[in-house]
Amino acid sequence: MVMRLKDIRVERNQRAILQNISGEFQRGKIYALLGPNGAGKSTLMQVMAQLLGSQGELEMAGQDARPLTPEKLAQQLAYLPQHSQLQFPLSVEEVLALATMPFELRRLEQRQQVKKAVALWGIEHLVAKDFRQLSGGEQQRCQLARTFIQLSNCADGGIWLLDEPTSSLDLEHQQQLQQICKQAAAAGHCIVLVLHDLNLAMGLADEVWVLEQGQLVAQGESQQVLTAELVKQVFKVNARTLEDGSGGRVFIYDQN
Amino acid sequence: MMKKLVASGWGWSLLLILSIFTCSLAVLQGSTDLEFLWSSQVGQNIIWQIRVPRVLLAFIVGASLSLAGALIQSIVRNPLADPGLIGVSGGAALGAAIVIVFFEASQIDFIASQYLIPVAAFAGGLIATIAVLHLGRTNINQADAGGSAALLILAGIAINVVAASLIGLLSYLASDSALRHITFWSLGSLASANYFWIALCGSALLLVCFWLPQQRRKLDAILLGNAEAKTMGVDVKRLHTQSIVALSLLAALAVSACGIIGFVGLVTPHISRMLVGASHQYLLVMCFFLGGILLVIADTFARTIVAPAELPIGIVTALIGAPVFIWLLMREGKRLQW
User: Fold this and answer.
1) At what angle do helices B195-224 and B52-75 cross, to 10 degrees?
2) For residue range A94-133, what is the model confidence (pLDDT) as tens digits?
3) pTM of the prediction?
4) Where is mean pLDDT largest: A6-20, B26-40, B256-270?
């Protein structure tokens, strides 16, 4: 177990925006946080990344996570926020190199790690460019590569928190991301993604957590939890499932 | 190209040589005959008691304002921010205006202009910064990692408005001579430079220069966003507080020494970024030297162009800086297709 939440509650303006959230995240597994807009998915992710204060228990590797310094936390967890904006002329290479900051690495090692990640994500042609000049999808891939470098350095399996990582990616790069997530999970890391594409969640995630109005309404193995009834109840959309030919299922959405 | 040059040892040496060359040239500029300067005791006094301190202070103040500008722009992630934004200049101006209006009225003009005005300006700048920090901090502790910078700016704007309205009130009460004094002080001048101010401003600059190199990667990370920086191991609140203390110290001392000199803190970090990029490893070095060199040149213009009279240096920095800035902005705009 890499992270455990118990009775997590977040309030804003004396109104609970997240309540009664409990569960565990295991090493080597991929989790998807699902739910309609405003359900509290990103808020939950910010609680996990300790960017947002919360009530309840939050443990990492069996210890209370709250007293951890940002540096210790960064050695166990990498986080990609939903929106990111850079106003200053940093090059892609400079952005990527920042990922090694929490770890004591020699300059040569830092360069090698950046080079490896650049090759893995296929962004060799972007390395020398001004980050601001890239398209949304290119920026997203660079940010993914940055957090991946940080994750790779986390000893004993880190946590990779990705808030809507596929929002700007084309189909090819969505598949690339899935591939890399699976490899990272196989290497012992725990991956948590906020997703809107239920078919992607069903194909990629081992477990899903479904949120609605700040509460956890379903939690468990993706193939079992994600049903047409749940989609109707939570997303207010009529859906059917079809066999995908490889033992899994896909959703087909009907016009209401 | 400039980035590669600064990255190599050559860049450092080149900037250092350029700074020494500019300062030496500035010392020799003036209405007094060069031969007289070298050969007479009076000439030697002019060099060592007037021109050298003035040029040195100009370099130190320029470097201080420029570094303060780079710091505030980085921590609030806004290229339009300047040290005045967190209330330092407004508070300092208010402190100076209080002394000018009330103490000039009680006929202790000489003492006031020599010591009391800078001391009051420093106290005013510091009080304003503490007030801004306090206003911002109440909210920083409650807010998530994303909100603190904006709250800080809003607190700065509020304090600046209070300072400006009080200065307006003082101007209304002031005598003609006091009003003229306030105006001249608010446009800046290095005429009262001496070794005391060099030691004071120089020590603060040295202190910050020892602290800055350890923060350069943290400052780079903060450019990506507070949430990104925090999850990359940066204690964002601590870095914000330390940076504001450092830049307030630099800016408040600079303003105390020579009044309000606008534009340097805003423009120099911009020009530096266009030359060497935004990575603080190179940016801070560039800001230090470029800020110093630019203010030495501006001050040389200010004291020679209408000699034997003197232009307020704030006017010169704006007159030289603004067109250069517009040109650079247009060039950068074309490149990025804004």
Assistant:
1) 20
2) 999 999 999 988 889 999 999 999 999 999 999 999 999 8
3) 0.88
4) A6-20
List of chain B residues whose C-beta atoms are within 8 Å of the C-beta of residue A88:
74, 77, 79, 223, 273, 278
Can you give the three-state secondary structure of B172-187, one letter per residue?
A: HHCCHHHHHHHHHHHH
Strands A239-243 and A249-253: antiparallel
Q: Do B234 and A88 touch (CB under 8 A)?
A: no
The domains of chain A, with CATH numbers, are 3-226 (3.40.50.300)
- Kind and range of the H or E run holding B300: helix B280-304
Contact of B315 with chain A, judged by CB distance below 8 Å, is answered with no
Strands A30-34 and A190-194: parallel
Which residues of chain A neighbour B224 with C-beta distances below 8 Å?
84, 86, 90, 95, 98
Residue A130 DSSP label: B
pLDDT at B145: 41
Q: Which site among B1, B228, B237 would you substitute to test the A interface, given the most A Cβ atoms closer than 10 Å to its Cβ?
A: B228
Which DSSP state fits A254? P
pLDDT of residue A76: 93
**Mean pLDDT of the residues in chain A:** 91
Q: Give the total residue count for chain A.
A: 256
Residues B43-56: what's their mean pLDDT?
87
Interface test with A, best of B231, B235, B332 (most A CBs within 10 A): B231
CATH code, domain with B261: 1.10.3470.10
Cβ neighbours of B28 (radius 10 Å) = 14
Smallest CA–CA distance from B141 into chain A, residue: A53
Domain count along chain B:
1
Interface probe for B, chosen from A10, A52, A76, A88 (most Cβ of B below 10 Å), is: A88
Domain extent at residue B113: 2-336
Check whether B19 has a pLDDT greater than 60. Answer: yes
| C-alpha to C-alpha distance for B274 and B331, rounded to whole angstroms | 10
Please answer whether residues A30 and A205 qualify as being in contact, where contact means their C-beta atoms are separated by less than 8 angstroms.
Answer: yes
**Residues A93 and A146: beta-carbon distance below 8 Å:** no
**d(C-alpha B109, C-alpha B127), whole Å:** 24
Tokens 């090759």 correspond to what residue? A119
pLDDT in tens, B124-146: 988 888 888 777 764 443 434 44
Give bridge partners of residue A16 from the DSSP assignment: A11
